[in-house]
Amino acid sequence: MSDFENILGNVKTWVREVGNLQKKNFRKENLYIETKSTEVDLVTEVDKLSEDYFLKAIQDKYPSHSILSEESGVHQNKDSNYLWIIDPLDGTTNYAQGLPVFAVSVALQYKKKTVLGVVYLPMLDLLFEAVVGQGASLNGKRIKVAAKSRLKECLLSTGFPYDQSENPDNNTNYFAFFVPRSRGMRRIGSAAYDLANVAAGIIDGYWELNLSPWDVAAGILLVEEAGGKVALLEKKRGISLIAGNENIVGQIFQGMSSVDQQGIS
Questions:
Q1: For the segment 143-194, what is each residue's pLDDT rounded down to a tens digit?
Q2: Is the pTM of the predicted complex or chain greater than 0.85?
Q3: What is the layout of strands, in order, in the sheet containing 136-138?
Q4: Using an 8 Å Cβ cutoff, are 140 and 128 in contact?
Q5: Residues 236, 246: contact at Cβ < 8 Å?
Q6: Is the separation of the CB atoms in 48 and 86 below 8 Å?
């Protein structure tokens, strides 16, 4: 068993404990909610409690490691080759609204390469995991990306940036393009879960714009270890990407390029 597999055992324990905390507080009366960058960019008291758990757990078990977490930023150890990338509650809007679709996302990088990724859905008890070079699994069963080759047969998913009302580069043009060209569209509300669904072959293709490392670090590894492809759109804002099998990623990229060339908005 590799060192990363040993670490994975700890991570699986942590995400389940955080998941229990989130379930305990789900649909809590008078849940404390704040806004961050915009009125639709939320953080709840449960986001912060979840993050506090991870910070303590990692610092107790691996005190020399660095941590990047959504709510508190970077906890840096300049001498460390290890970086944890944590989204303690991905899908905060769903959580705040009482929708039971949200995820805990944990990734570990070694020398800037992601070597471990876990995405856990507490309300659905779905645990996606991957160690680099070891494949990906869902609740202990090996998973792989879908093999579809025609976009019209594909179920696609996407999301929209928090500044969607202020910035015209907000994905609505691409969304409108793909709606009639696919079997269906889903807007799940958690990038980590979107990527995990691609890895499991549940969603055939996914794209999104202006994401952050904690949204995607674990999910990208899941897709890649499940035999899929993740294409980074370096000309777009933040971390923008497409995920699926190589064929479908290419077709989504071609569609987005067509929209850009036509200046559709």
A1: 999 999 999 999 999 999 877 777 778 899 999 999 999 999 999 999 999 9
A2: yes
A3: 73-75, 66-69, 82-90, 103-110, 113-121, 126-131, 136-138, 141-142
A4: no
A5: no
A6: no
Which residues lie closer than 8 Å to 117 by C-beta, 6 or more apart? Answer: 105, 106, 107, 108, 128, 129, 130, 217, 218, 219, 220, 221, 222, 225
Residues 131 and 2 sit within 8 Å (Cβ to Cβ): yes
For 169, list phi and psi in degrees, rounded to 5.
Answer: -85, 70
**CB–CB of 5/33 below 8 Å?**
no
Q: Distance between CA 222 and CA 245 in Å, rounded? A: 13
Structure tokens, 249: 């990623």
Query: Radius of gyration over alpha carbons of the chain, in Å?
Result: 18
Distance CA 153, CA 162 (A): 30
50 in Cβ contact with 89 (< 8 Å)? yes
Tokens 């958690």 -> residue: 190
- Containing 31, the helix (H) or strand (E) segment is none
The predicted model gives 12-30 an average pLDDT of: 95
Pairing of strands 42-44, 155-158: unpaired
**C-alpha to C-alpha distance for 12 and 119, rounded to whole angstroms:** 9
